[in-house]
């Protein structure tokens, strides 16, 4: 594959159609070659300010505390779960896949009082499940994943948000696989804490976790009695660097911050409705093409996540062989199933700059040929 992105370190550039990282636009890559300045340089502060303003637009929020954390999506998850809970606080985690499980793992290191509601992998959490638990035992934080990348389910949030607030909890949402690809109006839904990762629908290289914190959550942060277990991810300290005080906390990842700003400018210039429509349209094209190849999708249409499609590996077809041949013969990366779904699913991501019809057609062509020859 001839490719504008090739560099000496990589002999075979790939078409990235897995669950992330997604393709990075050449404009964003070029932005990363901008000369590095210091993290306390006024020019860099201007970049941080613009990043915050654009992030608010992408999260669809007015939240004052909106910035990026150094670290991948899991840093966002860890910061979100550990800043708003103290030892002994009750937490409720909704688990419908691999990343819901990761939330339980993280939160159990913060507080011993963890409850969970579960949905079968491939199904969303039902609002009644959440209400049933909260009725008998309110939780300070209720956490769930919007786009569960392990299953390809898009979790409806409106009803659950209403229930969580009725019982006085904070709603914490993982939007790592959905933000900037699927509509997620943080303020309209009343989401209190929301984080994402740089490498999916924003199409920035991995290594950053944008996060936004609403007023209710900010008050909880201010009222903490104990220190956050992680100094590095202590949002009270980090906000002093992003706010007007500009107190040094860590050396900002300068080049990634350039990339983030360029990607956010492009996202806002495209317009959120147009961006969501693009992701929906290419997903539809993929789903139709997969059906024409005789492949079955794992998630029913009404719960499907546009940015990540899960395909059932047909009987008699070896998951690994097909993925290896896609990579070696066609330079296309897709992913296999996680956890219990290992070997059973293919996961195809159409996120950010990867979400283009020419990529769908290329993948369908290659996959069709491989399946016919298998
Ligand atoms: C829904 C979701 N949450 C969290 C993460 C963790 O992000 P990272 O791998 O960037 O740490 C991922 C990664 O794929 C994800 O898909």
How are the elements arranged and paired?
Elements: E1 15-16, H1 26-32, H2 42-59, E2 65-70, H3 73-83, E3 91-95, H4 98-107, E4 114-118, H5 127-136, E5 141-145, E6 147-148, E7 153-154, H6 158-166, E8 170-174, H7 186-189, E9 193-195, E10 208-213, H8 215-222, H9 235-242, H10 254-270, H11 272-292, E11 296-297, E12 308-312, H12 319-330, E13 332-333, E14 335-336, E15 345-349, H13 357-373
Helix pairs in contact: 1-10, 2-10, 5-6, 11-13, 12-13
The structure holds pyridoxal-5'-phosphate (PLP).
Pyridoxal-5'-phosphate binds at residues 19-20, 72-74, 77, 99, 145, 147, 149, 174, 176-177, 197, 206.
Give a brief description.
With 374 residues, the chain is of the alpha/beta class.
Question: What would you note in describing this structure?
Answer:
The chain is of the alpha/beta class and 374 residues long. The chain has two domains: 15-24 and 272-373, Aspartate Aminotransferase, domain 1, CATH 3.90.1150; 26-268, Aspartate Aminotransferase, domain 2, CATH 3.40.640.10. It has 13 helices and 15 strands. The protein has helices at 26-32, 42-59, 73-83, 98-107, 127-136, 158-166, 186-189, 215-222, 235-242, 254-270, 272-292, 319-330, 357-373, and strands at residues 15-16, 65-70, 91-95, 114-118, 141-145, 147-148, 153-154, 170-174, 193-195, 208-213, 296-297, 308-312, 332-333, 335-336, 345-349. The model has no long low-confidence stretch (mean pLDDT 97). The chain binds pyridoxal-5'-phosphate. Residues 19-20, 72-74, 77, 99, 145, 147, 149, 174, 176-177, 197, 206 line the site of pyridoxal-5'-phosphate.
